[in-house]
Design brief:
Protein name (chain B): RCC1 domain-containing protein 1
CATH class of the largest domain in chain A: Mainly Beta
Number of strands of chain A: 13
Subunit structure (chain B): Found in a complex with KDM8. Interacts (via N-terminus) with KDM8 (via N-terminus).
Pfam family, one (chain B): RCC1
Shape of chain B: globular
Order of helices and strands of chain B: EEEEEEEEEEEEEEEEEEEHEEEEEHEE
Distance between the termini of chain A: 32 Å
Distance between the termini of chain B: 9 Å
Subcellular location (chain B): Chromosome
Largest sheet of chain B: 4 strands, antiparallel
Helix content of chain B: under 10%
Helix content of chain A: 25-40%
Radius of gyration of chain B: 20 Å
Shape of chain A: globular
Oligomer: heterodimer
Strand content of chain B: 35-45%
Keywords (chain B): Chromatin regulator, Chromosome, Hydroxylation, Repeat
Chain lengths: 340, 388
């Protein structure tokens, strides 16, 4: 564990991560000594998840298999819960939501199922954002996913959660909890704290959920292999904010549940966006997009941008290094695909 | 060295590799036990512990290793243990070339040839005359203070001459230097705030800790990801990572586990108002939990005890007070705090063993997951002892 915390994460030697994964495997095995002891089995599953989150693949992804077995075991012991609140009823409570006046802003263009050539020529090559419609209509997640379903499939699994309004805040932190705990603490009640299951490769950890999504066809226009595409889950309540930042890869942001307000600034405008100078945050702007301090950041007011409200079933193409700001208008689940 | 009653060394914490700790039984020792090696009557003056082995040097110049690395050698003045290599300072002949620095692979058992050696320029009377502080200018700082040794290449690292180094400590990913004027410098990785400059940026060269300017320091100690220093007036300053409570600041993980014994009912403890920040702090209201403290914070010991010396392990901290008590806090999973259990603490707690045995603690030296303590029997007359 200490080796995993030494140096930058990408520099941690894979062997230490493998050792950690083995440690988790052994510990989980010991905890499963008494199958009837539900808390011990739940702890064993948590330990498997720690190995999956921080360790590296060992023995043909044995931790995934163990986790699946433990999950099934725990699920069979559970009695069916009371009727859970559906996300749709949450939308009715619109008090306090500040929906931006998108109509007065320059919109991101929309296209319905463009051909590969059209997409490459008009958007990928010149690096222009676009919203693709009709592309993910057949994905199972569009009809299957709900809070109830996610709790059933992944409720006992341990996931990383970001606590705090945005990652540039002083009191922002990351913690681990089960999906059940996350949903009950941050999604069901209007919690005073914002919790966000953000930028997590949930589908590597829980292969069952991976079956509900696919890979956008347009990714084949890239140079990399399909297994190099990073798929992240973004699951959180209304009000989560990702501060204006840029990423080093192309991005397809697939909206599954809820709506998100998104603003996009071209990389050419970088200077007017005042990126942080520190190494840690050099890809993040210092400006609060919806409440900019124009005295400190005067050029921001003039920087042109595109914006949209991304709704379920829509896919936003964010070109590489295109600055983007995201705020969830509803309880939201998005899936992002980082590809090159 | 001033005339004084000879004391003895004790150890507690992790000894999974059979390193000299207590009787060497078992993998953990939760309460202080007298060191069994190198043998009764051995006058040990230096203990340097790495994760898997411990090096012990006697006043007679005997070096003995125990744990994953074994072996012994004579003619040694100082030793410094790390997983990558063992540094040994061999005394030079009275006339001629000066002391020799040797770097050994720990598993060589001190047989054969060292990995490399470096002969140092002899300096007149530079070791014992250090004002009664035999551990001053200890490894990895080299005699003469012109350079220090790192367990990672480049091994020999010169120090700028204007840095008149008195003491140098290496942490997991950073380094602390105390100069003759009592100023503290830090450099290395800063991701956990261990450099104390108020940011998380790395600093390649020694940089003065401005927050401590004007407060002359007497001791520094570096842990895995945290730093501690003791002022000449006995105050303690801490900064860096606090995930196990190693800074004695409120730690979230301890509260959530419910395992901390810090908040003992009925005890008139000072509470969080204890934790005053030094000049230069930007913080407003104190946060409930502190994961990273990026600049020095003043730490008070119970009953206003004054600190004399500090040492840091990987994620725990130990402090000796002027009245000869030992306080420990931080990660305690292997009993390295010496409180007869394996709870971690985010508050300083006195090690009662030494009080109960009427022993006066004089020095502490932490390994990564264990703690070694030097103590003498209490004098009847109660006159103050000279500081080690």
């Amino acid at each position: 564990w200490e080796k995993l915390n030494t140096g930058p994460w990408q520099d941690v030697h894979k062997d230490w991560r493998r050792v950690y994964a083995f440690g988790c495997l052994l510990k989980a095995t010991c905890l499963c000594d008494e199958p009837g002891n539900a808390p011990a089995v739940a702890e064993a599953l948590r330990v498997c998840d720690m190995g999956l989150l921080m360790g590296a693949a060992i023995h043909g992804d044995v931790l995934l298999k163990v986790a699946a077995v433990l999950q099934a075991h725990l699920r069979s012991g559970k009695r069916p819960g009371a009727a859970q609140e559906q996300p749709s009823t949450k939308k009715a409570r619109n008090t306090g939501v500040s929906v931006p006046d998108v109509a007065s802003e320059r919109p991101v263009p929309r296209l319905r199922c463009p051909s590969l050539q059209q997409f490459r020529k008009q958007f990928l090559a010149p690096g222009r954002p676009v919203i693709l419609e009709g592309v993910v209509d057949q994905w199972p997640c569009m009809t299957k996913w709900s809070l109830e379903y996610l709790q059933e499939i992944a409720g006992c699994r341990t996931v990383p959660v970001e606590v705090g309004s945005r990652y540039t805040d002083e009191d922002w932190s990351q913690t681990l909890m089960t999906v059940n705990e996350f949903i009950s603490k941050y999604l069901r009640d209007e919690s005073s704290d914002v919790g966000y299951l953000a930028q997590h490769q949930l589908f590597d950890q829980i292969p069952e959920l991976k079956r509900d999504i696919s890979i956008p066809d347009y990714c084949c226009l890239g140079d990399g292999e399909e297994d190099q595409i990073t798929i992240n889950a973004w699951f959180g309540p209304r009000g989560t904010v990702s501060p204006l930042h840029q990423d080093p890869q192309q991005n397809f942001l697939v909206q599954v549940i809820g709506r998100k307000y998104i603003r996009l600034y071209s990389p050419q405008e970088s200077e007017a966006l005042y990126p942080h100078e520190t190494h840690l945050l050099h890809n993040t702007s210092q400006v609060d997009v919806e409440n900019p301090d124009l005295e400190r950041f005067p050029r921001f007011a003039e920087a042109p941008f595109l914006s949209c409200v991304l709704s379920p079933g829509e896919v936003l193409f964010i070109p590489v290094r295109y600055w983007h700001y995201v705020r969830a208008l509803d309880l939201s689940f998005s899936v992002s695909f980082w590809w090159s | 060295m001033a005339e004084e009653r000879r004391g003895s060394w004790f150890g507690f914490g992790f000894c999974g590799f059979g390193q000299a700790l207590g009787s060497g039984r078992g993998r953990q020792v939760h309460s202080p036990e007298p060191l069994a090696t190198p043998g009764p009557g051995a006058d040990v003056c230096r203990v340097s512990a790495s994760w898997s082995y411990t090096a012990v040097v006697t006043r007679g110049g005997q070096l003995q290793l125990s744990g994953a690395a074994g072996g012994a050698a004579g003619g040694c003045r100082d030793a410094w243990a790390s997983e990558a290599l063992l540094l040994v300072l061999r005394a030079g002949p009275a006339v001629g070339p000066g002391p020799e620095l040797q770097a050994w692979a720990p598993d060589s058992a001190l047989r054969g040839e060292p990995l490399w050696t470096h002969t140092l320029v002899p300096e007149a009377g530079q070791e014992d005359a250090a004002g009664g502080k035999p551990q001053a200018r200890a490894l990895p700082l080299l005699p003469g203070a012109r350079a220090y040794v790192s367990p990672r290449p480049p091994f020999y690292r010169p120090l700028a001459p204007e840095l008149r180094a008195r003491r140098l400590e290496l942490g997991g990913e950073h380094a602390l230097l105390l100069d003759e004027a009592g100023q503290v410098f830090s450099w290395g990785q800063g991701r956990h705030g261990q450099l104390g400059h108020g940011t998380l940026e790395a600093t390649p060269e020694p940089r003065l800790l401005e927050a401590l300017q004007g407060l002359p320091m007497a001791e520094v100690a570096a842990g895995g990801w945290h730093s501690v220093c003791v002022s000449e007036t006995g105050d303690i300053y801490v900064w860096g990572w606090n995930e196990s409570g190693q800074l004695a600041l409120p730690a979230r993980s301890l509260a959530e586990d419910g395992k901390t014994v810090a908040r003992e009912a009925g005890r008139p403890h000072e509470g969080d108002s204890n934790m005053r920040r030094t000049v230069g702090s930007e913080d407003g209201a104190p946060a409930p939990f502190i994961a990273i403290q990026p600049f020095p914070a003043l730490l008070d010991l119970p009953q206003g005890a004054e600190a004399a010396q500090a040492s840091c392990g990987s994620r725990h901290t130990a402090v000796v007070t002027r009245t000869g008590e030992l306080y420990t806090w931080g990660w305690g999973k292997y009993g390295q705090l010496g409180h007869q259990d394996t709870t971690s603490l985010d508050r300083p707690r006195r090690v009662e063993y030494f009080v109960d045995k009427r022993l006066r603690v004089r020095a502490v030296s932490c390994g990564l997951w264990n703690t070694y303590v030097y103590a003498v029997e209490k004098q009847e007359s109660g006159q103050p002892q000279p500081r080690v």
